[in-house]
């Protein structure tokens, strides 16, 4: 699922920086492994994947990976690249005139202490649905709160919309927000760097597609079914057992609103959630996504997905709002070595869709 890439990249950036900080060697050579004219986290990642035997560097790339000029490529080379990227040290003179390591560490501490805390972005709050005019017909019946019945009706509305064969224009706005909520104080200097790498992209540019007979118009043809969350499922089959509360509020004109809150789920490691992926996109992760690192003794909590869907008199979606909060806690390591204990990242994925039928 494509949402996994966003959350995964945040963890990978954090782990990469922590791992390279723990490994030895303060000297520096070249390090521009991909030969793009800049030293950055991409070069460090290429070095680590070579060290972990996930990729093999050869020729000029292998020579550039030997950042400290030791004649060997190891994790210390990746550390140097990232420290230069973070402006914590300069490229050393490999002739032997490099700065004393202890002096460099003291200077680093001074810079870190003087550096202001990175400004956090406030978590996004879902923009409210337009308030209805006073003259619009009010509810003609009390809201239904029978979870089983409401969920059954919601599943039908979602699937009828996914499989709609008429003409419809759909605008989708989605994205993620991620922040570091806990990390060891000894690595506090990494925080500004990690925040600079986090892909906080909510809201991304809206994407509008026109569909007819279940297929999009234009050159890039995709299905309506696959455009509507959850994109990875051809049918919505939300289980009532995973629902904390569900309400359907009908309107006099036959339309109505579903308000659903899913139960929190805490999964060991990267096990997929049972219910939180049945009605919305979620941030799923697998072990291979963070190689060469490992997620040790950790949990991923899906802290209660909220879904609000407006439907027309025909039972088809006209508005869709979903928020999927996620909190990952655990220890992270490389091979048998634990790199950092008690790390926590929290974030969410949000989706908003609007449907116009013709």
Q: How would you explain this protein's 3D organization?
A:
This protein is α+β, with helices and mostly antiparallel strands and 358 residues long. The chain folds into 2 domains: 2-114, Type 1 dockerin domain; 147-184 and 200-357, no CATH class. The chain has helices spanning 2-22, 41-51, 59-65, 75-85, 101-114, 147-162, 191-197, 224-227, and strands spanning 168-182, 207-212, 215-216, 243-250, 256-262, 265-268, 293-302, 306-311, 317-334, 337-357. Strands 1, 2, 3, 4, 5, 6, 7, 8, 9 and 10 form a 10-stranded antiparallel β-sheet that branches. Strand 8 and strand 9 (317-334) form a beta hairpin. Helix 1 crosses helix 4 (75-85) and helix 2 (41-51) packs antiparallel against helix 4. The longest helix has 21 residues, at 2-22.
């Amino acid at each position: 699922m494509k949402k996994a890439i966003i959350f995964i990249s945040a963890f990978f950036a954090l782990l990469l920086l922590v791992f390279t900080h723990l490994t030895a060697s303060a000297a520096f050579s070249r390090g521009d492994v991909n030969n793009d004219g800049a030293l950055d986290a991409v070069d460090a990642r290429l070095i680590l994947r070579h060290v972990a035997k996930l990729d093999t560097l050869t020729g000029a790339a292998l020579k550039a990976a030997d950042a400290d000029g030791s004649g060997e490529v190891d994790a210390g080379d990746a550390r140097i690249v990232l420290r230069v990227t973070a402006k914590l040290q300069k490229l050393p003179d490999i002739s032997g005139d490099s700065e004393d390591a202890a002096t460099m560490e003291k200077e680093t501490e001074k810079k870190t202490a003087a550096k202001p805390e990175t400004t956090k972005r406030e978590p996004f709050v879902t923009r409210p649905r337009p308030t209805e005019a006073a003259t619009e017909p009010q509810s003609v019946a009390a809201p239904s709160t029978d979870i089983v019945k409401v969920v059954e009706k919601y599943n039908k509305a979602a699937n009828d919309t996914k499989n709609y064969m008429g003409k419809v224009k759909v605008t989708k706005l989605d994205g993620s927000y991620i922040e570091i909520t806990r990390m060891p104080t000894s690595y506090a200097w990494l925080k500004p760097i990690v925040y600079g790498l986090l892909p906080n992209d909510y809201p991304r540019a809206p994407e509008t597609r026109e569909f007819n007979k279940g297929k999009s118009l234009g050159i890039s043809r995709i299905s309506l079914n696959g455009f509507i969350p959850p994109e990875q499922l051809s049918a919505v089959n939300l289980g009532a057992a995973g629902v904390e509360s569900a309400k359907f509020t009908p309107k006099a004109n036959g339309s109505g609103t579903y308000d659903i809150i899913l139960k929190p789920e805490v999964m060991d490691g990267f096990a997929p959630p049972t219910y939180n992926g049945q009605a919305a996109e979620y941030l799923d992760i697998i072990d291979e996504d963070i190689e060469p690192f490992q997620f040790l003794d950790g949990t991923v909590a899906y802290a209660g997905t909220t879904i609000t869907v407006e439907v027309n008199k025909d039972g088809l979606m006209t508005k869709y709002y979903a928020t999927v909060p996620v909190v990952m806690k655990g220890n992270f390591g490389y091979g048998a070595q634990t790199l950092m204990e008690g790390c926590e990242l929290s974030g969410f994925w949000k989706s908003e869709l609007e449907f116009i039928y013709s």
